[in-house]
Amino acid sequence: MECSVKWIGDAAFVAETGSGHLVAMDGAPEAGGRNLAPRPMEMLLAGAGGCSAFDVVLILKRGRHPVRDCEVRLSAVRAETDPKVFTHIHFHFVVSGKGLKAEAVERAVKLSAEKYCSASIMLGKSAEITHDYEVVDSD
């Protein structure tokens, strides 16, 4: 996997991923940024959420469970001193489907957390990671 990141002025950068996609990043105004794009640490958090949500949906679909929607809301706490690593990350999944069983969602979340989501497992080396979920019955 490869990526390049180019400074484009002030505290703004553009990353080009190995698959050819562009992602803008910017700093907070107090850090010289213009607040035009996500911060790099926000990108890390979003990446972990995307990785885990992808796993949960794929596991449920492969198990032929009637998943219709999946959202994961993440909240993180960072250290107060440099390096300001994540010290705690909480994943809250909201998964919906008609007749979707809570046990299936719980299993999918657990498999992602313990086996498949390389992003959250890697972040778990420095942060306490917690998960919970809710199941919404939908048509």
Automatic annotation (TrEMBL):
Protein name in UniProt: OsmC family protein
InterPro entries (UniProt xref): KH_dom-like_a/b, OsmC/Ohr_fam, OsmC/Ohrsf
Highest taxon of the lineage: Bacteria
Stored Pfam families: OsmC
